[in-house]
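> @MW can you paste both from yesterday?
MW: sure, first one:
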Amino acid sequence: MSYDRVFTDQELQEMSAQTQDLIKAAIDAGELEKAKILTDRLYEELAFIHDGYMCWITGLLTHIYNKYGAKAVEEAERDAHTMEAKIALKPPEKTDFRSLVQHAAKALHGHVHQPMSITEDEEKVTITVDPCGSGGRIMQKGGYEPEVGFAKIKEAGPMTWGMKDLPMYCVHCPVTEMLAMEGPGDLPFVHPVSICDPKAPSCQYVFYKNPADIPEEFYTRIGKKKPDR
């Protein structure tokens, strides 16, 4: 039995092509409205994968926490970050302050649909995201409501910045700070150079120009001691 075709050859070709290639082709052809439509489509494609993995990881960590406890979650986070850094999130080649901030802003743009503002004063550069494009979006989507069931870390400790009921996905921020502090080099927080401030009205990443200006509380909340120099 044979059936009528559903797609034309051109439709199949466009469906199999990378959207970014289609955007470039539309721009080269002067089809600017088509390029805009394709740009929105690209974001929808990225959001589909981004949100899927974001929730998948949170579900896996929730399973680990419920079955094995908070210590196992930290161990899993540490191992995952270490492996991730070897393949995906490699340190930038340039490590001067300007380059590190630019690298972090570029990385944060990887969270699709994440509003961002950046300010600078004499002491620091602050990136504010409202909402955070990962942990914040999970909260917005109701991920910690009973019908979904993502866990929060009930125990207060270094892995939660000393807070109780830290949402599961957000655990990676304090663990990342721990790894940066424990890593090689004379300066703390070189990779990443940012410090998350969950007490701010919106999620913030703070970059201090001089590590000596980092407030002591940012060390003690993850179980570390501020260096003398």
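MW: second:
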Amino acid sequence: MNLNSIIQMITNLLIRKAVNKGVDMGIDYASRRGKPVADMTPEDHAQAQSGKAMAKRAKQAARLTRRL
């Protein structure tokens, strides 16, 4: 393995982690519908939690279909 391929692998790893973190933050923001956590009612919290759970199941389904 040469140095260029090692650097490319490390770069890809860091980019993948950054993109995944950004996607997770976007899903969290969308599930809260842009409201700060302090301004949310208990019903809003429940809806945000169900939205996060649904997004998690969607990610798992996408991962499963890629394996197939």
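> thanks! The chain has a mean pLDDT of 88.
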